[in-house]
Specification:
Strand content: over 45%
Number of strands: 18
Strand order of the largest sheet: 1-2-3-4-5-8-9-12-13-14-15-18
Distance between the termini: 66 Å
Oligomer: single chain
Number of helices: 3
Shape: flat
Radius of gyration: 29 Å
Length: 329
């Protein structure tokens, strides 16, 4: 009997659903179309960049009367960006990976570049007319493998993965009419954390961390600290533009000063790159990277006695000229 009742009730329910769906056809279509429009509008607010590049240089000599050393070098670069901009909000995310090596005849493989960077910045403005955003900024920088100073007679690691690593976290304001091309960021409150997770480097007080405390015989009483925190002011500027057809420039400047430790000593990080596009795949790059950090003391064997002496903070500079291939994917 129950089965006999189920059949007509099932038919009524199915029929009711069909009628209701038919009656609501236009509203349902409107709602779905509205959702699709919102989805499309959100997707168009995202700007994505996936870029891989490889620069190679090589020189070889055979019976060359004036002499020379054969060598080959390569630099691999990866760039990923996920940027969102809509009405009152902008959210920029960027990760940079670079690794370069050089091999000369009779010399072991040596590193020429080593970068791992993560950047994220969120901005919110009161209205769409203003070019000023309330902003929060995060950045993280370190390297992959050990770094050495080959100019010294004693070749020891002077840096390693997470030794150092730098993290900046702050709030402030950013200006940018076309923020993806030009932006100026001012943060009166930024936390800078310096990590030195290698104990030997930490004991030596590398990169500004508190060094180990030693007794008269040189034995370690208290190990060096792995972390140094600073609170200060951060100013950054980013400028990207096409100078002429197929020639573009990217200029990045970062200035930081700690409020409580030698305020006025400014950490400088200034990088400028000129990109020359040959075609869709081949490109050339001319770049300069200048850095100064009062906490980074340069060590060198100045007396050629096998002992490293600390010579204080110095201006660091790196120059790059490369020709290679670039692929967007």
């Amino acid at each position: 009997m129950i089965s006999n009742l189920v059949k007509p009730f099932s038919f009524i329910i199915v029929f009711g659903i069909c009628v209701n769906s038919f009656g609501q056809k236009n509203p349902t279509t409107i709602v779905l179309d509205s959702l699709n429009i919102q989805k499309d509008s959100i997707s168009t607010n995202w700007h994505k960049v996936n870029k891989a590049s490889l620069d190679i240089s090589e020189v070889s000599f055979v019976n060359w009367s004036t002499g020379g050393t054969s060598s080959i070098s390569g630099l691999l670069g990866l760039l990923f960006e996920r940027n969102f901009k809509r009405d009152h909000m902008v959210w920029e995310n960027r990760s940079v990976v670079k690794y370069g090596v050089n091999k000369q005849q009779g010399v072991d493989l040596r590193k020429t570049d080593d970068i791992l960077e993560l950047h994220s910045r969120f901005g919110f403005r009161k209205d769409t007319i203003s070019n000023w955003y309330y902003s929060a900024n995060f950045s993280f920088k370190t390297q992959f493998t050990n770094g050495y100073n080959y100019d010294n007679s004693v070749v020891l690691p002077i840096s390693k993965f997470m030794a150092p690593a730098y993290m900046f976290l702050g709030v402030g304001t950013v200006y940018g009419e076309h923020i993806e091309e030009f932006s100026a960021y001012l943060s009166p409150l930024t936390l800078k954390s310096t990590f030195v997770l290698d104990q030997d480097l930490a004991n030596a007080g590398a990169f500004g961390v508190t060094p180990a405390i030693l007794d008269d015989q040189g034995n370690i009483i208290t190990k060096g600290k792995h972390l140094r925190r600073e609170v200060g002011i951060l100013i950054t500027n980013s400028y990207v533009a096409e100078l002429v057809e197929n020639i573009s420039v990217q200029n990045l400047v970062s200035l930081y000063s700690d409020y409580f430790n030698s305020f006025g000593n400014i950490d400088i990080d200034w990088e400028i790159n000129f990109n020359f596009k040959v075609n869709n795949f081949v490109k050339a790059t001319l770049g300069s990277h200048l850095k100064y950090d009062n906490d980074v003391k340069i060590t060198s064997d100045e007396n050629d006695d096998g002992e490293l002496e600390v010579s204080g903070a110095k201006v660091q500079w790196k120059q790059l000229l490369g020709l290679g291939v670039s692929l967007n994917f």
